[in-house]
Amino acid sequence: MNQIMSSYEIADLIISVTGQMDSLFNYWMSASFAVLVSSYIGKEHFNYSITFSISVLYFLASVMFVARYYAMSTLIVYYTELAGTSLPAQFVTASPIIGITRMPTFLVGFITTEAYLWNSYIRNRRQGQNS
């Protein structure tokens, strides 16, 4: 155990970082739904440059999410190890499950959002050519 921080302080820090990760994940989910909704509602107005710009911005936001998520995950692992046995066993058992489920959710969400954005653009373009 680190002599500088008490068990309570480490637990409080872990809770704080976990809250930041949840907030970050909510931000990414909101950005994903914003792209999906704008693709659905505004597809008639999307040309290639707009679609490409939205795609790149969403990609960069997702890269930022992954980088921050990784940094925060590293902190949680570090402080969980530092706390040793002072944390409840249920917390130590449940934490990896949350982390493991977030990455597939992110990957499926990212791929689905990008695919829907480009599919909307392509379908609208084809419909415009057929009219």
Question: Care to describe what's here?
Answer:
The chain crosses the membrane at residues 49-71, 91-117. Keywords: Membrane, Transmembrane, Transmembrane helix. The chain is mainly α and 131 residues long. It has one domain (7-27, 47-130). 87% of the residues lie in helices and 0% in strands. The protein has helices spanning 7-42, 48-83, 89-130. α1 (7-42) runs antiparallel to α2. It is elongated and about 70 Å long. The model has no long low-confidence stretch (mean pLDDT 87).
How would you concisely characterize the structure shown here?
This protein is mostly helical and 131 residues long. It is built from 3 helices and no strands.
- The percent of residues in helical segments reads over 70%
The first-to-last residue Cα distance is 71 Å
Low-confidence stretches: none
* Count of discrete structural domains: 1
* Radius of gyration using CA atoms only: 20 Å
Instruction: Outline the biggest β-sheet.
Output: none
Query: SSE order, as H and E?
Result: HHH
Number of helices: 3
Number of strands: 0
User: How much of the sequence is in beta strands?
Assistant: under 5%
Overall residue-averaged pLDDT value: 87
So what's the overall shape? elongated
Class of secondary structure makeup? mainly alpha
